[in-house]
Amino acid sequence: MRAFHLLKYNNHNKYYYHFLRRKMSKEKQYIPTSNTFTSRYNGPSPEIMTPQQTALRNSILESRPRTGLSGPFGPWLAVPSIAGPSQELGRIVRYGTSLSMRESELVILLTGAKFKSEAEFDIHVGEAMRAGIGLDVINKIPRGSLISQKGSKEGIDNVEFSLENVKEYMIPLLKKEIDNEGKGDLQRDIPIVLFTAELLETNTVSDETYATTKQMLGGDDSVLVEIIAIVGYYAYVAYTLNVFRIPSSSSS
């Protein structure tokens, strides 16, 4: 009888252990919120494109083999004179600055959070994790109530985006990640995040923030130009995605 109860106990523990593992695994996953959006406009269909639009579409597809026309590129193709320079600016702010991919992704996620661009945030979570930003940090970026959660009380985080909330909720996790896991650079990640959050909240930064960030990033104003350019470009992307309700999974 004792052996039976011991076996039953062990089996119970085994099932509970697997339950906990599945639960923890699920909690470590990021669940996109924009993939159920229905697009208002995806841009012109290939059948009706002008030669200029077709050439630009092919150029975008060649330069983005993994993501294709996902995100804002479909709507932008409606106006080639806008789509072409937008594509080039995106390439530069994404890959042509002195910031590391990790630093760039921190700026992009903060911008997506501020503008409540669920598709922008969803798309860049994967990029951010590949750049070494942990999901614990990402989940602490304040985003407030989202469009996809309207009418639902479940899962709504009412912590709205602000510099103070970034300091309170995100920065401690970012410091912990850098200290404990050796990811990132404390002397760069923190000032970049604080500069970006202040810019997004107030549309400028104080003299103190300007001077401190410039000093921490090597004393060159050009780095601040790069951060501002990334924020500005991804604000433009966020507006496009928000207005046309582009889901994170969209591509043409």
Number of helices: 11
Q: Give a count of the beta strands, DSSP E runs of length 2 or more.
A: 0
Percent of residues in beta strands?
A: under 5%
SS-derived structural category = mainly alpha
User: What is the mean pLDDT?
Assistant: 87
Supply Rg.
22 Å
* Shape, per Cα inertia axes: globular
Largest sheet: none
| Regions with little confidence, pLDDT below 50 for 5+ residues | 4-27
Helix content: 55-70%
Distance between the termini: 65 Å
Chain oligomer state:
single chain
Task: Note the run of SSEs as H and E.
Answer: HHHHHHHHHHH
Account of the protein in words:
The structure is a single chain. This protein has 252 residues and is an all-alpha fold. It is built from 11 helices and no strands. Helix 2 (51-63) runs parallel beside helix 4 (80-95), helix 5 (101-114) packs antiparallel against helix 6 (118-130) and helix 8 (163-181) packs antiparallel against helix 9 (186-202). The chain is globular, with a radius of gyration of 22 Å. The model is unreliable at 4-27 (pLDDT under 50).
